[in-house]
Design a protein that fits this description.
about 200 residues; mainly alpha; 10 helices
C-alpha cells in the first residue's frame, strides 16, 4: 500500500506535468508552465537518474526472483551475460541482503537511494524523477507482459490499483507498439522527464 500512497503523492505533485506525457498530449503546449513548480534536472542529473531508473528495473526483477525462492547463484547466472553485468550482480547482492515486502515499494526506496547516492539528487528533489521511474516501470512491465502474450485487459487490471488514467494510457501505448523492454522503459522515462529537465 505504500506504493499507492507514494504514487498518489507523486501524481499530486507532478499532475501538471503529467498532461505533457505523449499518451495524453497537452493541447496548448503548456509544458514550460506545467513544470514551473517542479524541480528542474540538469542534463547530467537526468542521465544519471535514468541510470538509477534502469537499475531499479533490474532490482525489481531480482526482488521478484528472490520472492519466488530463486537462489542468488541462479539470479547471478541469469544476469551474468547481460549489459552492465558487474553492476547488476552487485545489485543482486544488495537485493538479497535487503528485506523485501512489496516489490513496488522496494523499487521506490531503491530508486530514492540511488538518486541520493549515485546521482547526488537529494530526496527533496527526486520525487518527480521517482514518478517518471514508476512510469518507466509500468511501461517495462507492460512490454514484458505483451511479449509473454498476456492480454492487455489483464495488465490494465493489475495496474488499476494505481490512481488515475495514466497507467492505462502507458500500457495502451506499449501494446500499440513493437518495442523491447528497454525501449519501452526509455520512451516512458524520456517523455515524462522532458518537461522538467535539460
Amino acid at each position: 500500500m505504500k506504493i499507492l500512497r507514494a504514487f498518489a503523492l507523486a501524481l499530486g505533485v507532478f499532475c501538471a506535468a503529467c498532461s505533457t506525457h505523449p499518451v495524453t498530449p497537452a493541447a496548448d503546449g503548456g509544458a514550460a508552465q506545467a513544470a514551473a513548480d517542479m524541480p528542474h534536472y540538469s542534463a547530467q542529473e537526468r542521465n544519471s537518474l535514468y541510470g538509477c531508473s534502469a537499475l531499479t528495473d533490474s532490482a525489481m526483477i531480482i526482488a521478484e526472483m528472490k520472492q519466488k525462492g530463486a537462489a542468488i547463484q541462479d539470479v547471478k547466472a541469469f544476469f551474468a551475460e547481460r549489459p552492465n553485468a558487474q553492476l547488476t550482480l552487485a545489485t543482486a547482492d544488495r537485493v538479497y541482503d535487503d528485506r523485501i515486502g512489496n516489490v513496488w515499494d522496494y523499487a521506490v526506496v531503491f530508486f530514492g537511494d540511488c538518486a541520493t547516492r549515485v546521482s547526488r539528487v537529494p530526496r527533496d528533489r527526486s520525487g518527480p524523477a521517482g514518478f517518471c521511474m514508476l512510469n518507466s516501470m509500468i511501461a517495462a512491465n507492460a512490454q514484458a507482459s505483451k511479449a509473454a502474450g498476456v492480454p492487455i485487459e489483464k495488465v490494465d487490471q493489475y495496474f488499476s490499483r494505481f490512481p488515475g488514467e495514466l497507467p492505462k494510457a502507458i500500457i495502451g501505448k506499449v501494446y500499440a507498439q513493437s518495442q523491447t523492454r528497454a525501449e519501452a522503459h526509455a520512451e516512458a522515462w524520456n517523455a515524462c522527464m522532458a518537461p522538467i529537465s535539460g
